Amino acid sequence: MDIEKDIAMIALQEERLRFTAFDENTAWTLGSLLRTKVKERGAAVVIEIRLGRETVFFSAMQGTAPVNADWARRKRNTVELLNRSSYAIGLALRQEQSSLESKMGLPTRDFASHGGSFPISVASVGCIGTVTVSGLPQREDHAIVVHALAEMCGVPIVAIALD
User: Fold this and answer.
1) Is the pTM of this model over 0.85?
2) pLDDT at 29
């Protein structure tokens, strides 16, 4: 894995994965799509979608544990604060040999820089919420979110997928 290459690709993902509009119905469609994609893999995750810091979709699939919801909360807190993918933040911190706690004073109990949370952005508006998955290894959590967002935004996944 080339960290610099991944950080650049995630920046492209964040730029291209934007909706023209997003509301509670869109959140339901996205959450349902994520559930279907995860089930097809034979896996189980927690899925959380928030708009304006209000949870509008939540699913804890059979096989998850409360710790998955807590990881989702911590990753989401990071994205809500920084408006960047939690995976991109984690990779950048790893590259700097730093952490959210040492760099910004953020407690690890409430903030995590592990992959799986992604900003929901609307063109000409910016970040309006977050979509978070927790339960797979962090790179896979990130990838499943990106695949679903790409499908909904009409962006070919081959143009933005991590290797």
Assistant:
1) yes
2) 98
Secondary structure (3-state) at 101:
helix
Dmax (CA) for the chain in angstroms is 40
The separation between CA 47 and the C-alpha centre of its own chain, rounded to angstroms, equals: 10
Please tell me the predicted confidence (pLDDT) of residue 132: 98
> CA 153, CA 140: separation in Å to the nearest integer?
20
Query: CA 37, CA 93: separation in Å to the nearest integer?
Result: 29
Going from N- to C-terminal start, the domains of the chain cover 3-159
Residue 64 is which amino acid? T
For the segment 43-58, the average pLDDT, to the nearest whole number, is 97
Structure tokens at 66: 């409360």
CATH class of the 3-159 domain in this structure: alpha beta
Residues in the chain: 163
Of 50, 101, 57, 127, the closest CA to residue 89 belongs to 101
Tokens linked to 134 = 């927790």
Amino acid at position 22, single letter: F
- Round to whole Å and give the CA distance between 38 and 29: 14
Which amino acid is it at 101? Answer: E
Phi, psi dihedrals of residue 18, rounded to the nearest 5°: -125, 140
Q: Is the pLDDT of residue 152 over 80?
A: yes
Per DSSP, the residues of 24-84 read: HHHHHHHHHHHHHHHHHTT---EEEEEETTEEEEEEE-TT--HHHHHHHHHHHHHHHHHSS
